[in-house]
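Example (one chain per record):
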Amino acid sequence: MRRKPASRLGVHLVTAALACVALAPLVQCKPPDKNGAFGELSGKEITGCCTDFRVGYDMLVTDFGVDSSLRPQYGAFAQAMGDDVVLSTRLLDEVTGACRNLALDFGGSPDDASVKGRSGTEASYAWCNLAARKLTDAFGDALQPAGHFTVHFGRGDCTIDAPIVARCEAACTSDASCQEKSVDERCDKADIVGTCTGKCTGTCDGSATVPGSCDGACDAKCEGTCGGACYGTCEGSASAGAHCRGICLGTCEGTCRGRCTGVCHYGKNAAGKCDGACKGGCATPYVTTKCDADLGAPKCPVEPSCEAACKAIGQARATCTVPSLTIAIGDDVPREVSADLLIQTKLRSLELNLAKLMNAAQVRGPQLQADAKAAYEAGDVVVADKNKLALGKLGLKGSACAHVIQTAGEQSLQDFHTAIDAATTVLKTLPVPK
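Predicted structure:
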């Protein structure tokens, strides 16, 4: 049963929680709402508080005082909601920060009445709305008249935490003797990422912080020679579509030979040497492998309510590369305009902050939101089943903690929604492909 979002979980949980920094436990000492899922307990005194739901801890091994038959799926639900509340807080803070940076870089003020004193979700919407207004003015007044802009967005890549998915599923299996398939067997061949010592026959994935080697088409920023039109700088001088005979730093409409901050698609005759993450195929066996998509269905029977939680945990603990965005100025722009320091400064701010907003609105945000929603709904069935409550399978402690876990899940869903919605508000104002 979906309840109205409860009050906020106090102050934001620090994002370092995933690194297992010791946090004060979330505590629920109030009796449940008499109109809620645990209404029959509202007239009873709850002995003790819920101190077992601790974000950043391994809750897969916590029993929460529930019957052993519920322990695996209850623990998986708790772990998923704990991980998601941290990820949603982090994403929301990142969106708020990006919108704040854009608003200030384009003429806004922290003393603006629309943002001053705002916090939480209100701050996200306030800063993103202010950023949208400032960008609308900028594109109408200065940037858009300067000429045509094209945007290249490098999505970044996320490899799931397969070991914790396997451990979560193993705890929930009804056949302890079953031997589960390996990650390579459960990951689609096109989604396998690894270290390739031979020829990479797929793509070589770089990032904004660690560009990968490239000899082909780069979907983000090229750092090297460009066999085509270079939009950025060529040998240190502004280039708006000219053929670059030296080092191109920007987007390359052709073959990039050097390094790429996004995905490099090798040319037909390329050596295929990838010093980054090779994805989709290697002529020799991978040295190490990970999966950058959800694993296929497990072979061993797993409690249905656990599958969604295990999947959400794997995504929440995924390792992700930093997304990148490059804005290229069209060749119809006079060189003195494209080289203008003020315009270049504003474009760099757009590149840095729009990458975060696009990631939140179109890539990582929707993925995490969908997984969190599925895990919440599956887990809600486990803890809100009145038959289990009546039979004493949840117990007083398990019932009290369930209320906290559900509240955490509801808050994470609310924060994911706010982050996506606020980021989209800014992206809608831009006269560029999204």
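Caption: Residues 1-28, 40-48 have pLDDT under 50 and may be disordered.
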